[in-house]
Design brief:
Elements lengths: L1 E7 L2 H9 L3 H14 L5 E3 L11 E3 L2 E7 L2 H6 L3 H5 L2 H4 L23 H15 L21 H18 L3 H6 L3 H16 L8 H25 L4 H14 L5 E3 H8 L3 H13 L3 E6 L8 E6 L3
Parallel strand pairs: 1-4
Antiparallel strand pairs: 2-3, 5-7, 6-7
Length: 303
C-alpha cells in the first residue's frame, strides 16, 4: 500500500505526540517507527467492530510530507522523540530562516514535456498491476549500481558509523544512525529522475546524496541546539542567544535585551549568568573612559 499524506503545520501533530495526553498519539508514533522498517513485510491493522479478522497492509510505503516554521518544528520535539529514532527517520529540508520573494507560479497547461513523459511512465507502471495479485504482492525492481558506486555508499555508511561512535551526546548519536539509509534513498531518487526508463545509481548520484545528507544532519543538529528546550528556563536562554545572534555584530545592550525579553531584572540576571557559565555569551561594560553612565552589553561567543 502506497500513500502520501501532506500535512501543513506538522508541528501541531508533533506537539500532540510530545504532550502524551492521549494514548492514540503514543500509538501513532509507534506505528510511524515500525512502518519505516516494514516496507518488505505485512503489517496487521487494528481490528474493527463487525470484522471477523483484522485487515493487513502488505509492503507498506508511507510518506508524510509536512511543513512548518523552523522554530515551531524543532520546538515541538521532546528528548524521547529525539532519542528513540523518530528524529533520525526524518529527512528535514531546511529552507532557511528568511522568507523568499514571491514568484508567479507556472502555467499548469504548459508543463514541460520531459515531466509529462516521466509522470505518464510511472502512472503506467502502477496501472499494469491493476486487477491481478501482483498489485497485492508486487515484485520491486532492483536498480543496479554503476561501477563501484556501491562501495562509495558502503564507505559512507562506515563513516557515519564513526560519527555515531564519536558523538558525545545521545541526540547526535541517534541523528547519524539512519544517514547511510537515507543517502541510498536519495541516490535512488536521483537515478529515477535522471533516467526513468532505465535507472542506474551512478557515482554522481551517490556523491550528491552523501553531500546532501551530511549537510542536512549537521544543520538539523545545529537547529536543535538553537530551538530545542527541555524546560521553560532553557527556552528563555535560547531566546536570548537567538536574539543576540540576529544583531549584525552579535552584540546587544542590556536595555534592548530587557525590552525584548519582558522578564524581571532578577530573572534576566539568572539567564545571563547561566549563559556566561556555559560560555555562550560574555558581558562587557562600555563607555568607562568617557562621561555618563556606562553601558552593559552582551556579546555572543563564537563557540
Amino acid at each position: 500500500l502506497c500513500m502520501l499524506f501532506q500535512n501543513d503545520e506538522i508541528d501541531a501533530m508533533l506537539q500532540c505526540i510530545k504532550s502524551g495526553k492521549e494514548g492514540r498519539y503514543e500509538r501513532l508514533m509507534a506505528y510511524l517507527l515500525s512502518f519505516y522498517t516494514s516496507s518488505d513485510a505485512i503489517v496487521p491493522m487494528r481490528a474493527k467492530a463487525g470484522q471477523d479478522a483484522a485487515a493487513v497492509i502488505r509492503q507498506p510505503h508511507l510518506s508524510l510530507f509536512g511543513t512548518a516554521t523552523t522554530e515551531n518544528f524543532y520546538g515541538a520535539f521532546n528528548e524521547r522523540m529525539l532519542t528513540t529514532g523518530m528524529f533520525s527517520r526524518m529527512m528535514i529540508i531546511d529552507m532557511g530562516d528568511d522568507r523568499g520573494m514571491f514568484h508567479q507560479p507556472g502555467d499548469r497547461e504548459n508543463i514541460p514535456e520531459a515531466i509529462k513523459e516521466a509522470a505518464l511512465f510511472w502512472n503506467a507502471k502502477a496501472l499494469q498491476y491493476a486487477g491481478n495479485l501482483s498489485w497485492e504482492n508486487p515484485q520491486p525492481v532492483t536498480v543496479p549500481y554503476a561501477g563501484k558506486t556501491g562501495d562509495i555508499l558502503l564507505n559512507f555508511q562506515r563513516q557515519t558509523d564513526e560519527y555515531y561512535r564519536n558523538a558525545t551526546d545521545e541526540v547526535t548519536r541517534v541523528a547519524w544512525t539512519r544517514a547511510g539509509e537515507n543517502a541510498r534513498k536519495l541516490a535512488l531518487l536521483y537515478a529515477c529522475s535522471e533516467s526513468h526508463t532505465c535507472p542506474q545509481i551512478t557515482k554522481a548520484a551517490a556523491r550528491w546524496a552523501m553531500k546532501f545528507i551530511t549537510h542536512q544532519i549537521k544543520r538539523q543538529l545545529y537547529k536543535i541546539d538553537v530551538h530545542y528546550a527541555d524546560s521553560l528556563f532553557h527556552k528563555l536562554c535560547l531566546k536570548v542567544v537567538e536574539r543576540i545572534r540576529r544583531e549584525k555584530d552579535q552584540t546587544i545592550t542590556r536595555s534592548v535585551l530587557s525590552k525584548y525579553m519582558k522578564v524581571k531584572p532578577k530573572e534576566l540576571d539568572d539567564i545571563i549568568n547561566a549563559l556566561e557559565d556555559q560560555e555562550r555569551i560574555e558581558s562587557l561594560l562600555t563607555g568607562l573612559a568617557g562621561k555618563g553612565r556606562p553601558t552593559r552589553i552582551y556579546r555572543l561567543l563564537s563557540k
